[in-house]
Amino acid sequence: MHLWNLFVAAILGLVEGLTEFAPVSSTGHMIIVDDLILKSNHLYGTEAANVFKVVIQLGSIMAMVVVFWDRFLNLLGLKKNITREQMYGERLRLTHVITGLVPAAVLGFLFEDYIDAHLFSVNTVLVALVAGAVLMIVADLTRPRRPKTETVDEITYRQAFVIGLFQCLALWPGFSRSGSTISGGVLLGMSHRAAADFTFIMAVPIMFGASFLSLVKHWGAVTPETIPFFITGFISAFIFALIAIKFFLALINKVKLIPFAVYRILLAIVLLLLIWNR
Q1: Which domain holds residue 46?
Q2: Short-list 261, 111, 117, CA closest to 178
Q3: pTM assigned to the model
């Protein structure tokens, strides 16, 4: 195992961790750092590269689980010393999360092969980066002055379902799951923090399920030679995702979405310049 390979794994884990849950498109960043700069896909072959991307995504998911640990225990009814009022009162329930998951789960199942075959390219990611930025700008400019839903515990089933419809946009690589769903929540009258909380909680089961299926499919790439590479990426993604999630949640109600939209447009320009210079 060369130290360069471990360095590559750490850098890719860093990129995944910092960008997976921010509305800036982790896919766009991974293309720049992986395919256009580090050229790391040749290290162990295509199948190993697919497994690695799953592994670092799992690192990010585990960071989300840590941040929302108490919330997930509540949703599953596993938290001790919780009162009946807390369990059945006005609060986020597991059924809200399931309601939000249904649209993207159905469309993802129906169009998975088409998405893999036609939408995973630099050109489509470029378009998605800009389209997602426009949606975020529109959401910020048209949002109500005073949010109707201040916290995630006030979310309605209608809001959960419509946010789930916005999540379908994230099936287009580069659009960003958090960018589309937070924008949808804001357009529905939710505060940025409430929309972000629901987005992150909803992301865990759908990302974990997709990662698990992909890992099983490509399990043959897990060998004694690649395991240190995978572990390094996983740890890096976990640590930096933990930092990024806490920072983002503390920041989102203050800065809103437009700064992230501007960043996405700049990222698209950088990506376009890199393509031209190939």
Answers
A1: 3-276
A2: 261
A3: 0.89
DSSP states of 65-113 as a string? HHHTHHHHHHHTT--TT--HHHHHSSS--HHHHHHHHHHHHHHHHHHHH
> Do 191 and 253 contact (CB within 8 A), yes or no?
yes
Report the number of distinct structural domains present in the chain: 1
Q: Can you read off the two tokens belonging to residue 182?
A: 């937070």
Task: Quickly list DSSP for the chain.
Answer: --HHHHHHHHHHHHHHHHHSSSTT-HHHHHIIIIIIII-GGGTT-HHHHHHHHHHHHHHHHHHHHHHTHHHHHHHTT--TT--HHHHHSSS--HHHHHHHHHHHHHHHHHHHHHHHHHT-SHHHHHHHHHHHHHHHHHHHHHS-SS-SB-SGGG--HHHHHHHHHHHGGGGSTTS-HHHHHHHHHHHTTB-HHHHHHHHHHHHHHHHHHHHHHHHHHTGGG--TTTHHHHHHHHHHHHHHHHHHHHHHHHHHHHH-SHHHHHHHHHHHHHHHHHHHT-
Going residue by residue through the chain (278 aa), what tens digit of pLDDT does each one get? 578 888 888 988 999 999 988 999 887 787 777 665 555 455 656 677 778 888 999 999 999 999 999 889 888 887 665 555 455 555 899 999 999 999 998 998 888 888 877 787 788 889 999 999 999 999 999 998 889 999 999 999 999 999 999 999 999 988 999 999 999 999 999 999 999 999 999 999 988 888 888 888 878 878 888 889 899 999 999 999 999 999 999 999 899 999 999 999 999 998 888 777 76
